[in-house]
Design a protein that fits this description.
- By secondary structure, this protein is mainly α.
- The protein has one domain (2-336).
- Helices cover 72% and strands 0% of the residues.
- The chain contains twelve helices and no strands.
- It has helices spanning 2-18, 34-50, 60-93, 98-107, 109-112, 130-148, 150-172, 188-208, 217-236, 244-259, 271-294, 303-345.
- Helix 2 crosses helix 8, helix 3 (60-93) runs antiparallel to helix 6 and helix 3 packs across helix 11.
- The longest helix is centred in the last third of the chain and has 43 residues, at 303-345.
- It is globular and about 60 Å long.
């Protein structure tokens, strides 16, 4: 899964890079399909984490808020680093006056708090973070429901949500790359997130049922590789007869297989691959601000050279983001530990 996260993060940032430049024969011009992989994977892990919580009516809200607080705080520090860098860049690049800078910062509070998909985001350079906002909002709504009615949700409500929401999107939009279209109540990107996170929850139910244990390992590996190959080729323009929605449903069994121990591939289970998996999140976060610097490169160098510089720059920025943020988290942890020891001694 760590290897796949890295691969799909590169596909997504390449797709976004293509939107900011003009070259013939661009790669991954349907690379947005990688977001479906991340939503389904997030839904799987979401259901897995909630399966460890036992329902207690007296502590339902406390347990739900505690779960979401932990989830939010695992994402926020890296996001905040990129927010700060983006605001600083904007102030310098666009030469905002002091008053304008203060206004922009206050107006960007929904973006900073990951509430953009609520409909009130203003800082366009953080627009790519819609995925995080949609995920947080959907999980916040679903957490107490799943804790209290887990079986009903996974076996009944989740399939209905998948069919209804995907059906709505398919009926109204030719592709699944729907984010900021307003349906009168909220962004359609929230429907996309809710449908695919719910699909991920269903995947976990299949995984938990041990259905895959009855299937030969070689069959699972072949199916997994073939599906991901189809998805990746589709993102480059092959299999044009397929639809985004078909590819989304194809990803569901592939993700389920990938989490299975039967599909474990030994040479991909090492620290370096785990490191790449962790790096995929900062890669997604830093892509926009890096693109502001690399888009000034002359197109005469050619598409692949330009893309290579861009990806290398994103990875470099991601490393900075990860190490600085991890260092800050470590320092905060040490300070909290010392404060706790002092309180105990007192």
């Amino acid at each position: 899964m760590d290897f796949l996260k890295f691969i799909f993060s590169i596909i997504i940032i390449t797709y976004h890079f293509n939107n900011s430049v003009e070259y013939p024969n661009e790669l991954f011009h349907k690379g947005y399909i990688g977001v479906e992989f991340f939503f389904i994977t997030s839904g799987f892990l979401f259901a897995k984490s909630l399966s460890k919580l036992r329902y207690n009516n007296d502590s339902l809200m406390k347990d739900s808020m505690g779960f979401m607080k932990k989830k939010y705080l695992s994402l926020f520090p890296y996001h905040f680093f990129v927010c700060a860098a983006t605001i600083i860049y904007s102030i310098i690049n666009y030469r905002w006056a002091f008053g304008k800078a203060i206004s922009k910062i206050f107006n960007a509070i929904p973006d900073i708090l990951l509430l953009r998909m609520g409909g009130i985001g203003t800082l366009s350079l953080l627009g790519h973070e819609w995925y995080l906002s949609a995920m947080i909002i959907v999980m916040f709504i679903l957490t107490p429901i799943i804790i209290k009615h887990r079986d009903v949700f996974i076996h009944y409500a989740a399939p209905i949500m998948v069919i209804a929401f995907v059906g709505y999107l398919a009926h109204n939009f030719s592709d699944i790359n729907v984010v900021s279209d307003w349906n009168g109540l909220f962004f359609c990107g929230l429907l996309r997130a809710a449908a695919e996170i719910s699909l991920g929850c269903i995947c976990y139910a299949v995984y938990e049922s041990k259905l895959l244990d009855k299937i030969n390992k070689a069959v699972l590996l072949i199916a997994e590789v073939l599906i991901y190959l189809i998805v990746i080729l589709y993102s480059t323009g092959y299999f044009s007869g397929l639809t985004d929605y078909t590819v989304m449903f194809l990803l569901a069994p592939a993700v389920t297989i990938s989490f299975s121990q039967k599909a474990s591939v030994g040479f991909l289970n090492n620290r370096f691959i785990s490191f790449l998996g962790k790096l995929s999140y900062p890669i997604y976060l830093t892509q926009m601000i890096v693109r502001q610097f690399t888009k000034a490169i002359s197109p005469q160098i050619g598409y692949f050279a330009h893309l290579g510089i861009y990806i290398a720059a994103v990875i470099a920025a991601s490393l900075i983001c990860m190490y600085v943020t991890d260092g800050f988290i470590r320092i905060v942890g040490i300070l909290k530990s010392k404060a706790k020891q002092k309180n105990l001694q007192a």
